[in-house]
Specification:
Layout lengths: L4 H21 L4 H15 L4 H36 L1 H13 L4 H12 L5 H19 L3 H18 L4 H10 L3 H30 L18 H24 L3 H6 L2 H15 L5 H33 L3 H8 L2 H4 L2 H14 L2 H12 L3 H4 L4 H14 L9 H10 L3 H30 L1
Helix pairs in contact: 1-2, 2-13, 3-8, 3-12, 3-13, 4-5, 4-10, 5-6, 5-7, 5-9, 6-7, 6-20, 7-9, 7-21, 8-13, 8-17, 8-19, 9-10, 9-21, 10-12, 13-17, 16-17, 16-19, 17-19, 19-21
Length: about 425
């Protein structure tokens, strides 16, 4: 029996509503919210129970096949860089290059670079002490410094693999991971600049200085700056070369090295190289920590894949294409859908995974059913997942608590910054679409 459009729409609303209710009000882990939403949608469109289970297993397995190694390796890279202090070395090098007079800009750049392999909340926690220290030395208000750092981390978190939302959405839509990492980085730059600009302009109007605490001046590791940057720079270079060789049908060796799994593996080895005096027990502990962190991310991504597979059985694309002028909406549809989901439930990861599951089957109707179209759709989803971060977002509270900032200035400066970042990123995507399509 084929479900009617009203039945599909109500089932979809029930599934998304359940995700929002469970994650926001009851603080249920995103995996279980997505897992239960699969049943809400499946039963709503009258799928047999065994069929629901079967489709969920297929969706879960497919997404793991595509993204599992990338998530684990990216997490491992971030854990090692935190442990060795390479993130703080990079921050100090950028601050020295830019100068203390432009300390907020330095922290924005630091967040952007450190955020490439490290998730935004972890990166902020690692750099929060250094951020307060630099704010005290430079006299720049801590609110300005904190939102600049947060903006740099957030821009790459929403747009670029191996971050979980972007990685999962790319797998669902079928966007090329290597090209997404490269072009996503280009889109993230103006987004980060917009966040840093608003932090500097508005932050100085609503914030005061925070006294400097001398105990926050922790000594930096002896790692040379060039060595600290290697684990990030080399994988990006390999992926760029691999993508170029793939387009030009060039060297097979470079195409292999440019595979994100291989490139991230090289990054992990280089990250180990930044440390000294490694002990077997220490390396084992870091591997365990990375595996545990990655496991929590993988189950969310897997549940997102299962949810997408359930949605694919509802023939939602045909129904929506008959009801909405999707061909005219184009990139606006994935962007606005991601904005709605992000603002409603808080998590960028859940927003982009859920939106990708819906948009994935609408690509032909949106005019985005090509390699370039899928890439641009993915970037539009990432831009939408930035806006708006507020009190229902865990990252909002990480910034607030680790910087000692009250809610009102956070809403005026950080939340508005995320709105500007999302709009700026989407405008960059539109500009790219004019050139690439």
């Amino acid at each position: 029996m084929t479900a009617s459009f009203i039945q599909v729409l109500l089932s979809l609303a029930a599934g998304i509503g359940l995700i929002v209710l469970l994650t926001v009000k009851f603080r249920v882990h995103a995996f279980f919210a997505l897992f239960l939403a699969c049943f809400a949608v499946g039963l709503g469109v009258q799928l047999p129970f065994p069929k629901i289970i079967s489709v969920m297993k297929e969706g879960f397995g497919h997404i793991m096949q595509s993204l599992g190694f990338i998530i684990v390796l990216g997490t491992m890279l971030g854990v090692i860089l935190e442990h060795t202090g390479a993130t703080r070395v990079m921050a100090a090098a950028i601050l020295k290059l830019v100068g203390e007079k432009r300390a907020a800009t330095a922290m924005g750049i630091t967040g952007f670079i450190v955020g490439l392999p490290i998730f935004c909340d972890s990166g902020y926690i690692v750099l929060s002490g250094l951020n307060r220290s630099v704010a005290g030395r430079s006299g720049v208000p801590l609110l300005v410094m904190s939102v600049s750092l947060a903006s740099g981390l957030y821009a790459v978190h929403c747009l670029i693999p191996p971050h979980p939302g972007a990685t999962a959405a790319a797998g669902t839509i079928g966007a090329d991971i290597g090209r997404l990492m490269l072009i996503g980085s280009a889109v993230a730059i103006p987004a980060a600049i917009a966040g840093c600009w608003w932090a500097s302009w508005m932050g100085k109007r609503v914030a005061g200085n925070v006294p400097h605490d001398a105990h926050e001046d922790e000594p930096l590791p002896a790692t040379p700056a060039w060595k600290a940057f290697l684990p990030i720079a080399v994988p990006i270079l390999l992926i760029a070369l691999g993508a170029f060789m793939k387009m030009e049908h060039g060297s097979d060796v470079l195409q292999i090295l440019g595979d994100p799994v291989v490139a991230l593996s090289v990054g992990v080895l280089l990250a180990l190289y930044t440390g000294t005096g490694w002990k077997k027990a220490e390396v084992s502990r870091l591997m365990l920590e990375a595996s545990e962190k990655a496991g929590g991310i993988l189950v969310i991504i897997g549940a997102g894949g299962a949810f997408g597979a359930i949605l694919a059985t509802t023939d939602l694309g045909t129904h929506l294409s008959d009801a909405l002028p999707l061909g005219q909406l184009g990139l606006f549809f994935p962007f606005l859908l991601a904005v709605l989901l992000k603002t409603a439930q808080g998590s960028s990861t859940v927003a982009i995974i859920t939106a990708a599951a819906i948009v994935g089957q609408l690509l032909p109707k949106l005019g985005l059913d090509s390699d370039t179209g899928r890439l641009l759709c993915m970037l539009a989803l990432g831009a939408g997942s930035m806006a708006i971060s507020h009190a229902n977002d865990a990252y909002f509270w990480v910034i607030s608590k680790f910087s000692g900032l009250d809610m009102q200035p956070m809403l005026k400066v950080y939340s508005v910054a995320t709105l500007l970042m999302g709009i700026t990123a989407f405008l960059a995507v539109l500009a790219l679409s004019a050139v690439m399509m």
